[in-house]
Structure formats: structure tokens, C-alpha cells
Amino acid sequence: MKRYTKERLWDALVSCIAIFLGLIIVFPVIYCILGAFKTPAEFASPVLLPKSFAYLENFRNALHQAPLLRYMVNSFITAFAGSFIRLAMAVCAAFALTHYDFRGKKLCFFFLLGTMMMPGDTLLMANYATVSRLGLLNSYLGMIIVSFVSASQMFLLRQKFLSFPKALRHAAMLDGCGDLRYLLTILLPLCRGTLTTLFVQSFLSLWNAYLWPLMVTASAPDMRTIMVGITKLNSWEDTNYELVLAGVTISLIPSFVLFALMRRNLNKDNTDGSLNG
Amino acid sequence: MKLNAKQQKNLKILGFLAPILIFSILFVYYPFCRNLINSLYAVSDKGELLRFVGLDNFRSVFSRRDFRQFFANTLLLTAINVPVTLFLTILLGRLAMKKRRLSPVYETMFALPMSISMSAAAMIFKSMFSPTLGCVNAWLGLKLGWFESRDTALYTCVILTVWMGIGFDYLLFQSAFRGIPREILEAADLDGTGFFTRLFKIELPLISPTVFYVLCTNAVLALMTSGPMILITQGGPSRSTGTLMYMMYASGFGSSNYSLAAVVSLVAFCLTFGLTLLSFLFERKKVFYQ
Fold it and tell me: Which residues on chain B are in Cβ contact (under 8 Å) with A31?
């Protein structure tokens, strides 16, 4: 009995410490949201809370100064199409590598894994040259074309596919189910959890991408993504932080939704693999 | 002509694998080779090869003062970032190991930074650390120009990059701690093992593959840092925050010096290659242990 109360006290203490640390970690986000509601005078004073949350001038100005909603749409289109194509390619590759035997299978597998050895950032300049030669600058396709290949997704899906018994496929084949139909109607529905996790993860990473969209859309302000757009709200001479923070707050809303989706998925199928995408 | 079964099968395999293979050649292997070639040639500002110059590009880049400074900055940033991130995320992962009633609350808070983009975070930190309007100076009673003075700028960038990395690494450690077999921990409890002995002699050795994995992936990420520099400091003040990747971006995209950009990116690649290989190894082990 005594030991039990001691443990409960200990748990309460640890929870308090954890929440305190958690508050420090999320502080920048809180600061950003609160700052977005402040008047310039309030922002100059060190008080954390704004007087009222009805002061929406910053949001209005931010939306007025740059077409943030248009940028959101750009971000959404590129993130959605990019994640979809990436996942589709990974699924096809993983299926071929697990369900067929052919010469050079090992080679293909390691060839794809080899792409993970090269950090994407080191290839940016060379890829920029390629994309500009293909005439894809300032286009949606140009913004996503370099992120189609994901060896880690392919690898995870391969593991997942291998975990299904061979008998499943034999049974489907006996029923006259072709390869493509087997993939689309049997295998993929069974992997729904993994697929959702991978899709949300890659959507979030494309949504949050900064450097590549910045380079590709440099000469077409209309094509900017939201994450590039919010950085153009401030200039060095005239830093209107409330305005910038309002723009950032707007851009964070979809990020939070994705984050919530991702956490729900991770809790649902807490497999080791889904964390390593 | 009717295809026989074998040809049909091969055609299917080709259909499944061709897209990903083509794109990995076009946007991973080709640019890598292109970097190799560009680094050995004089390249025009339109990206055409002018003439073969051998290792001259490397020689001229290595003798540049700014390159040496940026190289040193990159290593310094990594040397601070990696241990700090490891310490923090192991601490957070261990705190969150046991499931408690408030777990969902603090787990969400710990993981939140992973959903924030570099550009949003940079904007927020820039305003927090602003010398006149920021809350950090106001609350600490300081007048530091965090991002503006050459003594503090790099360290302020490290604060930002550490913050960015916390969420994901913490999740890895949390699941590693939770993956430790229960029997082992119960045995330790029965033996009356103290908390720190238990942590250092039992738990950390058991999750060591995760520790090394996070160490390697984190070092790779830190060596690739360019966001805070592009967004906030422009490599300044007086080159104190420039990194290799910032230099590649600035020389290639800013001034169209493609051979310089190629050399810098090859140097960065060599720095990370070993680490990436090692992280693969540890990832295998990690899966094996659990």
C-alpha cells in the first residue's frame, strides 16, 4: 500500500516535470500564435498575452500583402501530387521486388537503396540545372519531380509485403485474380495503415519543404508555396514581426492537422517500421 | 505477335520497376555524376562544360578563406548539435517511457516541433531573438544581438536546429525505451538496482543501436544545415554562420559558379557518406534487437 502511494506521487512529479519541459519546447509555437494577435505597441512590451484575441488586423494585413491562400493551394497541390506519385512508385517497386523472381532483382534492390546514400541537399544544384534544362522551372511538376523516389518507403513496403503468407497469393491466383487486381484489391487494402502513415509523413515533409520550392519558383511569385511565401512577408529594413507571425500562424494550421493525423496513425498501428520513414 | 507467358511477365516487371528506376537515375545518380564532372571542369555560368581542369577546382576552393571558415563552422555546429540533441531526446524519451495518465499531453508537446517547417521556425526564432522586440532579451534583461553578432550567431542557429530535431528523435527513443523487454526490467527491480545503475548499465546498453542510429542520422542532418543561414543570417555576420550547404546554395544559385558548388557538395557528401552507411547498419541492428 505504502509503495503504491509512493509510486503515484513519483508519477505525478515526473508528469509535472515532463509538462514543464513540454511547455518550454512548444513555447516558440505559443509565442507565435499569441504574437499574431498583438498590436505593434503590445508587441514591443515584454508581456506575453495580447489584450484581446479580437485584434485580427495582422491576419488581414498578411493576407492583403501576399496571396497566402493562393500559396496554400500551391502547397496543397504539390504536396498531394508529390506524395501520391512517390507512394505509387514505391508500391510498384516493392510489389515487383517481392512477388516476382527475375535476373538482377538483387541489383535493382540495392540500386534503389543506394539512392539513400546521397543526401538530397548535395544534389540540389545539379538537379536545379536539370529541371531548368527540361523547362520545368516555375511549374508544379518541377516543384515535385525531384522527390518522386523514396527508397525508404519502398523498403518499408517491401517488408510489409513480405509479411503476408504466400498462400494468400496462391489462393487469389486460383480464383483467377491477376497480379494487378491482387495488388489493388487485396494487398493494398490490407496495408492501409502503413500506406496512410507513409502518405501523411511525406505530405507533411513536402508541405514543409522550403529550399527546393524557393529555388524552382524564384522567378514566379504566383507559384510560391506557403512556406516560401511566409518568408517574403518581412524585409530586413522593415520588420513587422506581428504581421510575419500572423502569416506563420496561418501556415501552421495545416501542419498541425497533419501532425494530429500522424499521431493518431502512429498510435493505431504502433509498428516499429512506421517510425522510420 | 502474341507474347508468351515469360515475355508477359518480364513486361509486367518492367512496368512496375521502370518509373522508380528512371527517376532515381535522373534525379539521384545523374546529378551525383554531374557533380563529379563539374568539379573537374571549368563550367560556364549557363552550366556548359568549358574545359577539363583536373583538380584545379579543388585546389582553388580549398585555398579560399571563406571555404575554410564555412567548413570549420559546419563541423563546430555539428559537434554541438549532436551531443545536445542526443542528451535532450534521451532525457525526454526516458521521461515518457512509462505510460501515465498525462502521457498524451506531454508526448504531443515533445513531438510537436517535428511538424513545424524550417521556414516557419526560422521566422519565429528570428522574432523571439530579435535584439529590440524579442521576448528573450526582454525577459533575460539582455541586449544581445543573438543573430546579429558574430560571437553568438552560430550558437543561436544551433538552438534553432536542435529545436527542429527534437520531435522525431524523441519519438525514436521513446519507442526504444518502451521496447526493452519487461522481464529484464522486472529482474533489475527485484535485485533492487538503483535508478542510475539501471539507466546506465541496463537500459542505455539495450537501446544502444537506437542511440548510434540517432547519432549518425543527426550528424548527417547537422552537416547539411543551411536553412537558418539562408533564412536569417545569410552566412553572416562576417561569415560566422556560413556552412558548406549554404556555400553551395550561395555559389550555385546565387552566383552561378557551378564548379564551386559541385566541389562543395562533393566535400559535404564525403563527410556524410560514412555516417549514412553506419546509420544503415545500426538501423538493421535496431530492428533485430526489438
Answer: 124, 128, 135
Closest residue in A to B19 (Cα) is A89
Q: Give the pTM.
A: 0.88
Query: pLDDT value at position A277?
Result: 35
Instruction: Report whether pLDDT(A275) > 80.
Output: no
CA dihedral (B281, B286, B289, B290) in degrees, to 10, reads -150
Are residues A93 and B20, on separate chains, in Cβ contact within 8 Å? Answer: yes
Yes or no, beta carbons of B30 and A148 under 8 Å apart: no
Residues of A in contact with B220 (CB under 8 A): 119
Please report the domains of chain A, with CATH numbers, ordered by start residue.
36-276 (1.10.3720.10)
pLDDT digits (tens, 9 = 90+) for A105-146: 999 999 999 998 888 888 988 899 899 889 999 999 999 999
d(CA B77, CA B155): 8
Residue type (1 letter), A20: F
Neighbouring-strand partners of residue B42? B51
Tens of pLDDT, residues B173-195: 998 999 888 888 888 888 888 88
pLDDT: is A236 or B129 the higher one?
B129
Backbone dihedral angles phi then psi of residue B50, each to the nearest 5 degrees = -95, -60
In eight-state DSSP terms, residue B50 is E
CA dist., res. B62 & res. B38, Å (int): 16
pLDDT grade for A272, boundaries at 50, 70 and 90: very low
- Residue A149 is nearest to which of B28, B105, B139, comparing CB atoms? B28
Kindly list the residues from chain A whose CB atom is less than 8 angstroms away from the CB atom of residue B21.
Answer: 108, 111-112
Taking each helix axis as running N to C, give the angle between helix A57-65 and helix A241-268, from 0 to 180 degrees, rounded to the nearest 10: 90
Instruction: For residue B41, give the 3-state DSSP assignment.
Output: strand
Task: Select from B17, B102, B172 the Cβ nearest to the Cβ of A19.
Answer: B102
Cell numbers at residue B239, please?
561569415
Cis status of the peptide bond prior to A50, with omega within 30 of 0: no
Distance CA B174, CA B103 (A): 12
